[in-house]
Design brief:
By secondary structure, the chain is α/β, with parallel strands linked by helices. The protein has 8 helices and 9 strands. Helix 7 links the parallel strand 6 and strand 7. Bound molecules: phosphoric acid mono(formamide)ester. The site of phosphoric acid mono(formamide)ester has 9 residues, from helix 2.
Length: 282
Amino acid sequence: MFSFFDQVSSTKNSSQKQNQKLSTTSDQVGILAFFEPSTRTRVSFEAAGSALGIRWIVLNPENLSLKKGESVKDTFQALALYRPDFLVIRHHLSGFCELAQKWTNLPIINAGDGFNEHPTQALLDAYTLWKKNPKKKYKIAFFGDVVRSRVARSDIYAFRALGYDLSIVDDGGLETKLFAKAFKVKLISRAKLKAQDVVFCLRVQKERGSQVQMPALMPNDLGKQTLVMHPGPVVAGEDLAYELCDFKAKNNLVHEQVENGFWVRKEILRNVLNLKKRGPKK
Ligand code: CP
């Protein structure tokens, strides 16, 4: 993971220093297949890929022949026959990307599948913390709807790989207790948030049937130095109190996460596609 992070920093720094994008030419074609709403993930993949010279086919699920009753398997097998080089998929079913890989036999980047995983979000979250202090072993507490969060699952794997100390704020629910046990993460009380380096806030996943009712994270939940992270989208007043929704504030990393999404996904695409880095355009 560290050499990947070094690559991300190197591309980001050289691009900012020269005040222009490093260009890469590519004859690769990618399909963006988002069956759930997305702002950050879809647009950052599209922007990062375009900067690498990738040509995108952007699907709108509302206009696919799925609407006429075609099966999703037939749809993906048809897509593969147009010979794209890879697909980026978001879908509401957990495990969907694995199925799509079997149907198409093409490289698939998982942009979020049900409540299973969101691996590119985990990489950008881990990169954001590592970049701030590569040596620090952060104490991180997840706050909010952990049980239905694919971000929480992927972040637990990534943060654990970096040796961070993880906990979950106990909402008193049985599902949260079972989740904490299954993922071997300790439960803490809300009062213990003050002692954390980072509070990672999660949205209530109403679209996945969540009934979590925790009052929004408040400024007085936090210590003076506590960093606030959130993968977005933020529901102001519901996940984070309005006073914590200044995403440019000193201890707020939300905009850094969003911006790093571009650089991390650019490096993911470069790695997946094995694109060669070139110098700046003359
Ligand atoms: N964090 C995240 O996945 O945001 P989007 O739903 O806007 O892509």
